[in-house]
């Protein structure tokens, strides 16, 4: 007997996601280095302070383009539905008591995952738009200073929201056991799908009659 | 521009701990520019070029006497000429020497992300330390007077240093030294304000009722002060701001936002950690798992499902 898995992401989707992880990390830490003086030491990881200033915008643009690929593939399935609002209302029960029984049945993505998706997408658009406005090497000299002042503050705010979203996103993947497998191998166990995403599980298993139940579980 | 100074540093950009304060009795200095005595000869511009060894590119006439038309990385001071009629029918030629105002609360220093790239000396002079400048242009957003200029050649910010190298060895700034009419004076801020007050009362006897010293409180006062014939209308002097302050956007971004955002981000990670300590992981009950017989593909929906694709648990 072998455990059954369900393919959740293709190889290309995973490579795309890992590249987003890499460049988000580079853009994020190089940005933090210039945001708070106590984190200025992070510039040393990017070849020094000047280099940090030089490379940060390019990292940002790469994150945006890589996320755009992801966005095109996933925006439709992340559209908000009525059940998602119910899920959000029930979420404290799940987060603080670990009780998933009362949650409305979930498709491929639950409301929390959708919120992460949209928060990331919106933050990135704002980061790109504001970042270009005060990019000294290319544009800043042609943008009125009062606009740049708004841009720097909004850029920092969007980066802050995006960082918090990333913390939630990463922690959720650690908290819900079996999730990281989707990121590393592309598959999740059938039990994971049945438990956390029952509607998606049903859709994937449709027409499959010969799934044997574990009458004798390994280790019994 | 250079960090080889014998002046004490009172404030340092992107630095969260205090500067040395053992020496307390260092008098604040100021440069006074008496617009009412300026004849627009530009000797100050030439002296600035010469002392600081700067050579701007030769520009073209824009229809005014302003030459160059604006501050540049190579022109740290520029005479700005404006023709106004404060009283209708009576043309006045107002000539303002533009350049860094050396704010007591410098917006450039507040905005700068690079430790020690901008310093304020104990005597009040604000200086850019070029070797620490990273070329981000944040000082431009911080400055309420639109003074710093970023060079496209070396990505460094430049502005008037108030000849900090000369002041450090008890010399007056080059522009003050060169001024033929005494319109530019340099000394302790106290003395300059006293001299300015004298000039203002003189101007008042000559009919300039609104004459005043320009030392804007919004930036904590400045170490370059003007004597203006029309002190109630600074904006007629080529857009000298009436009540300059550090932009609230910059104040928020480089003030409260910095510690609050950092604490929240670290806090969020800590909340996650302790949530895990208390709640533990969200696990799938073993009985929810499905199994397939050995030898059968065990991945549903795999890209190459038709080949006998199997995955170990």
Mean pLDDT of chain B: 94
CATH topology of the largest domain in chain A: Fumarate Reductase Cytochrome B subunit
Q: H/E series of chain B, N to C?
A: EEHEEHEEHEEHHEHEEHHEE
Name the largest protein-protein interface in this structure: A-B, 67 and 60 residues
Query: What percentage of the residues of chain B does DSSP assign to strands (E)?
Result: 15-25%
Q: Return residue spans of chain A where pLDDT drops below 50 for at least 5 consecutive residues.
A: none
Task: Kindly describe this structure.
The complex is a heterodimer of chains A (220) and B (313). With 220 residues, chain A is mainly alpha-helical. Chain A is built from eight helices and three strands. Chain A is elongated. Chain B is of the alpha+beta class. Helix content of chain B is 24%, strand content 18%. At the A-B interface, strand 1, strand 2, helix 1, helix 2 and helix 5 of A face helix 3, helix 7, helix 8, strand 12 and strand 13 of B. Strand 1 of chain A pairs antiparallel with strand 12 of chain B, so a sheet runs across the interface.
Summarize the structure.
By secondary structure, chain A is mostly helical. Chain A has eight helices and three strands.
List strands and helices in order, with pairings.
The complex is a heterodimer of chains A (220) and B (313).
Chain A: E1 2-3, E2 5-7, H1 11-35, H2 49-74, H3 82-97, H4 111-133, H5 145-175, H6 180-184, E3 187-189, H7 190-196, H8 198-205
Antiparallel strand pairs in A: 2-3
Helix pairs in contact in A: 1-2, 2-4, 4-5, 7-8
Chain B: E1 9-12, E2 29-34, H1 43-52, E3 78-87, E4 90-98, H2 107-111, E5 118-121, E6 126-128, H3 138-142, E7 149-150, E8 157-158, H4 164-167, H5 174-178, E9 184-188, H6 189-205, E10 212-214, E11 224-228, H7 248-254, H8 257-279, E12 291-292, E13 299-300
Parallel strand pairs in B: 2-11
Antiparallel strand pairs in B: 1-5, 2-9, 3-4, 5-6, 7-8, 10-11
